[in-house]
Amino acid sequence: MAKKSALVQGNQACAHGAIYAGCKFFGGYPITPSTEVAEELSAMLPKVGGKFIQMEDEIGAMASVIGASLTGAKALTATSGPGVSLKQELIGYACIAEVPCVIINVMRGGPSTGMPTGPGQSDVMQAKWGTHGDHAAIALVPESIQEIFEETVRAFNLAEKYRMPVQVLYDEIVGHMRERIVFPEPGELEIIDREAPTVSPEEYKPFDSSKGQVPPLAAFGSEYKYHVTGLNKAADGFPTTKAELVDAEERRQVDKVECEEARADIEKNEEYMIEDAEIVLWAYGSSARSARYAVNELRKEGIKAGLFRPLTLWPFPEKRTAELAEQAKAIIVPEMNLGQMIIEVDRVAQGRCTIDGVHRVDGDPLNPGQIMAKVKEVI
Amino acid sequence: MAERYEIRFSGAGGQGLITAGIILAEAAAIIEGKHALQSQSYGPEARGGASKSEVIISDAPIDYPKATIVDTCLAMTQEAADKYAVGIKKGGLLLIDADFVKTAPKGDFTVYRLPIMRMAKEDIGREIVANVIALSAVIGMTGVVSREAGEEAVVRRVPPAFKDLNKKAYNLGYEKGKALVN
Amino acid sequence: MAYDYESSIRPGKLPHIWCPGCGHGIVMKGLIRAMDTCELDRKNTAIVSGIGCASRLPGYLDACTLHTAHGRAAAFATGVKMAKPGMNVICVGGDGDGTAIGGNHFIHACRRNIDLTYVIMNNYIYGMTGGQFSPCTPTGMLASTTPYGNPDPVFDISKLAIGAGATFVARTTAMHPRQIDKLITQGIKHKGMAIIEVLDDCPTSYGRRNKFRSVIDMMKRLKDNAVPVKAAAKMTPEQLEGKFLTGVLYHDTELPEYCEQYEALTKKAQNA
Fold first, then answer.
1. Per residue of chain A (379 residues), what is the pLDDT tens digit?
2. A65 and C CB contact within 8 Å
3. Distance CA A330, CA A281 (A)
4. Which residues make beta-bridge pairs with A107?
5. For chain A, which chains pass the contact test of at least 3 CB pairs under 8 Å?
6. Is A234 an 8 Å CB contact of chain C?
7. Are A63 and C68 inside 8 Å of each other by CB?
8. B31 touches chain A (CB under 8 A)
9. Which of A160, A295, B37, C264 has the fewest CB atoms within 10 Å around its CB?
10. B64/chain A closest Cα distance in angstroms
11. Is the CB of B39 less than 8 angstroms away from the CB of A367?
């Protein structure tokens, strides 16, 4: 039998992906251009025995998601830049308390209210550095409807596996455009659930990392009772100010994502015509679609251009970017912002090649012509 | 068909042109199995204002999601014509509502006129089907999807009670559109 | 025989952080007694708080305890309760946490009539940060940020809760320990949003600055000004000047509870 396919919006694909991943809770607040994710899930979740709640504000939405996740439910919220700004304190809470959850950010322009119905890619640094304090971040950046579905599933998997918030960022264009999606069959994509404790309730410590960087997480309402706090805490979950404990916990929580093994697991890139590329377009999200178009056109003109497209933006693909800086004459970073990921590319390239950017913040997408003009300017 | 064919529907918000775009994309992507991508841009208004919906149809995967050079454009209002009947390719087609677009944009393309709103009101009896007439006129003019695929996509989208009404509107628009270019 | 509080308190977590003369410990004991009276299964009970002195309470109790961010207890608790309606969910916190930074979550949790029991300790000051005025600091009084006297009008937490839609609202004071556990017990048994406001004192951050000579003076004031609802009915407005009502202020058993409403909606969606 042929697989089921449909023409859906990016935001609808996200909702379908969440259900496929086993999402059982959505807490949100209406905001353009992400609202369709909430609308879809308000209809879908009760059908699968899940819960949907529209909270009183963005902060409350994030709080409800963390609370729900602690009971063992896979939990999701969806918002846009202004909403993520409001959620930041609690994203940090989910980091330090190590609570799995997924945050969808359908990016528009900014700062502040900006252009609610126009696309942007200006939250990519916010995804890493938005909340205060040192912490690890995982952020995924799909470029198509099919990929939004798949990356939403992957976001849940990573959130559960690494016990932390994972953000999925795509812009208004991808969120609102429609393409065909072919729905994966049940079991076709891997689904990961958080690791449950194996020790007895008496022995359970919610942050005991003696058996691995990611401690098992018990559900509230099970046999396990424990304490959760946003304060720096010891392995037993209770607050501590002991320097060596605070230091070790802070480092572990970053290291669980940024160690080599985790990076290899979390990183995901697409490479297109990279093998002999002299000019590398380093692009993500809908800007990568423009960049791929530009690569095809440039190749027709005999220019050796290629596309490097991270699907995982954070942790940053340092190793591969450094290798490309070694290989290429120039790396060009097209972004719908005034230059954000280019800062990271430049940091990693360490002067090994020319780094340049193409920027657009007027509410229109970067078009292939702009990117091609920059390539020709650089060579 | 060229590898990448671009169609833009424009008019006033609330005229159903985004829906027209979605139906065309469904006809291409779901019924005919081609690659298709529909997008739109809109302001804060739910009603009024100029809105546009774009559909790209291709035999190959579609990278850049917005129109690059429009093959066929529809404008239902003067404001939409002024704002969105731009970037039409040399030799392309522009279909305008004969009553509502008094001043046709000038360019290296062919302008066709149909009284779309009037046809909906007088021939079908319901203004609400103007978007289906516009859609089928574009299909009749361009053949970008088959007549049957377009009709099936329309039928799939509308409630059963409105099936016949929409079929009637579809066939009217298709015939008129086809006649324009022959 | 002395009451067994020990078995409800996590080993090694005392002494608590509260100052001598603070009433939070009295409230905690009242909460323990109420939980015992209701025979709550501690594995199936979440105690949720925000930030502040009162919000440290969950850490001492043996249950699923969630010490969240400033003002967010009601919103976290809403997520816990929605996701697992079978759990008993109790919020504890202070007046600033609950009605200033957390005011929006507080009123909307009341509006939904979700089955939470919220014990709000009102000592009309931000104690942990050193005595800044809160929405409940009486007008004219001194706080570290009102050196010339507090210019702000005051929130009446219980009235706020009633106005926002909570279906069980009660008030008592730290000087009425028996009433604390009685009202919390009623709140836990009530199906819907229950607010128990406990007027409390902060001798360290409020008392000293406002020239209360001793903790006893402060507590005596709480006792003297508390008027049970029944007694108040027979008193004139003049007699009630400067007093506050205690006991059950509002109780509505008719209004449907939020999770039950959602359950009904779920059945409707699944049968559609």
1. 578 999 999 999 999 999 999 999 999 999 999 999 999 999 999 999 999 999 999 999 999 999 999 999 999 999 999 999 999 999 999 999 999 999 999 999 889 999 888 899 999 999 999 999 999 999 999 999 999 999 999 999 999 999 999 999 999 999 999 999 999 999 999 999 999 999 999 999 999 999 999 999 999 999 999 999 999 999 999 999 999 999 999 999 999 999 999 999 999 999 999 999 999 999 999 999 999 999 999 999 999 999 999 999 999 999 999 999 999 999 999 999 999 999 999 999 999 999 999 999 998 899 999 999 999 999 9
2. yes
3. 9
4. A171
5. B, C
6. no
7. yes
8. no
9. C264
10. 5
11. no
Q: Which residue of B has its CA nearest to A293?
A: B63
Among residues C36, C30, C25, C45, which one has the least CA distance to residue C116? Answer: C45
Token representation of residue A106? 């359908």
Amino acid identity, residue B130?
A
d(CA A93, CA A251): 16
C 182-241 → A contacts, CB under 8 A = none
Interior/surface letters C92-131, b for 16+ CB within 10 angstroms, e for the rest: bbbbbbbbbbbbbbbbbbbebbbbbbbbbbbbbbbbbeeb
Query: pTM for the full model?
Result: 0.97
Structural domains for chain B: 4-114+142-160 (3.40.920.10)
Using only C-alpha atoms, chain B has a radius of gyration, in whole angstroms, of 15
Residues of B in contact with A108 (CB under 8 A): none
Q: Would the CB atoms of B43 and A177 count as touching at under 8 Å?
A: no
Structure tokens of B164?
Answer: 């016949």
Domains and CATH numbers, chain C: 17-271 (3.40.50.970)
By Cβ distance, the residue of A178, A290, A368 closest to B25 is A178
Could you give the domains of chain A?
A: 5-182 (3.40.50.970), 270-378 (3.40.50.920)
- Six token digits for residue B115: 């009284």
Q: How far is A132 from chain C (nearest CA, A)?
A: 13
